[in-house]
Amino acid sequence: MTVLETIDLQMIYHVGKVDVPALRGATLQVEPGEYVAIMGPSGCGKSTFLHIVGGMLKPTSGRVMIEGEDLTAMTDAQRTDLRRRKIGFVFQRFNLFPTLTAEGNLKLAERIYAGKDNRDPARRREVLKVLGLEDKMNHKPLELSGGEQQRVAIARALINRPAIILADEPTGNLDTENSGVVLNMMRQLNKEFGQTIIMITHNSEAAARADRIIEMRDGHVVRSTVSTQAI
User: Fold this and answer.
1) What's the predicted TM-score (pTM) here?
2) CB atoms inside a 10 Å sphere around CB 4
3) Label partner for 27 (CA 20 to 30 A): which of 44, 108, 111, 230?
4) 10 to each of 40, 78, 190, how far by Cα in Å?
């Protein structure tokens, strides 16, 4: 089954009396286990696309199918439930709770996503180990480097075994060294866990780590190419 399919997505923002189109018929398919990077100039619609796929915005028209479920036909409550079950988010700003340790942030995510009766300490330890955070689990965010904070954010996104991870400029706040570490970790998670990842980035070097690069222009998907590093 296709993990994600978008069909003729249209999004028009109303600014006063002016209609501003952000998406003009974006159609895309992502298969299980794919690592896809979405690129394009500012204003091309890629952030709007990500927010619609993540259930945070409802399109003007078109459809979003996630593992066969029609996100665009759902109520707000149903979309929230689907986000909890099937989507993990990684943002440019790490959005960690500063008063909680790394493990505490993961426990909170477990409670939100899986419920109090479905927590999995073994899964938590596995994710922390893969991301090289075993010795940082009792550290609070301000005691971690930017790269370590982003790895905790990735661990939080993974904790519920989502169908898709949506990553919005995940290295945007990191230096070159930490960016490389985070991108390597995401590639490892994709390979070892078969995790489907859709990443928005302006960075061509980051996009080259993906299996496939999607280019957007003026609200359209204009090109899909296999990354040379993925061959």
Assistant:
1) 0.90
2) 24
3) 230
4) 17, 21, 30
Inter-residue contact 183 to 171 (CB < 8 Å): yes
pLDDT per position as a tens digit, 189-203: 899 889 999 999 988
Q: How far apart are CA 221 and CA 44, in angstroms?
A: 9
Tell me the CATH number at 79.
3.40.50.300
DSSP string, 114-155: H-TT---HHHHHHHHHHTT-GGGTT--GGGS-HHHHHHHHHH
Three-point CA angle 205, 32, 122, nearest 5° = 90
CA separation for the pair 11, 48 (Å, rounded)? 8
- 220, two tokens: 């359209």
Q: Summarize pLDDT for 157-216 with one digit per residue, the tens.
A: 888 889 999 999 988 888 888 888 889 889 988 998 899 999 999 888 889 999 999 999
Total number of domains constituting the chain:
1
Taken as a whole, the chain contains a residue count of 231
Which residue range forms the structural domain that includes residue 115?
4-226
Q: Could you give the CA distance from residue 67 to residue 86 in angstroms, rounded to a whole number?
A: 9
